[in-house]
# Entry
Amino acid sequence: MTMAENSIYGLMAEYDNPDDLLHAAQGAYAAGYRKMDAYSPMPIHDLSESLGYDKHRVPFFVLLGGLLGACAGFGLQYWVSVIEYPLNIGGRPFLSWPMFIPVTFELGILFAAFGAMLSMFILNGLPQHYHPVFNVEAFESASSDGFFLCIEAEDPQFELSETRGFLEGLHATKVVEVES
# Structure
């Protein structure tokens, strides 16, 4: 990597539509690029897999949060009804588990939602108030109608001129350097 390449974050290619972006991501991954990211104003089916992100960890945290919430809800009701303040009302047993189902379910759902929200923030590195791609003027359209693929300079296969030619060969409308 040369000195000029040290001062850039990577190369960003702009595409006209989501299909071109998807094909470019698949082509870049097939060519051996691994440190790259795609930006789109809408979800694109199979884009994350095309970039090499096949491990989805959020569902694990949602399940963990749901189980933790359900256990907390059931445990709290058990502690109150059986251990701390047992009342025999109408001859029913202290551990009347059918009565515990609604609160157990609701706390399971609540904690699962918290697990989803917190894991998304943590795993995505949010909040991120600054990113080098914000330096690219055309990137303003990424939230409305722009489709971008950025290959980072940290990628072992990144060579400025070769990567630029590669991205232009993937039918990019424009390829620009992203400054650090």
The helical segments are 3-6, 18-30, 47-50, 58-84, 97-123, 160-169. The longest strand covers residues 8-15. The chain has two domains: 3-55+130-179, 58-123. The beta strands are 8-15, 36-39, 147-152, 174-179.
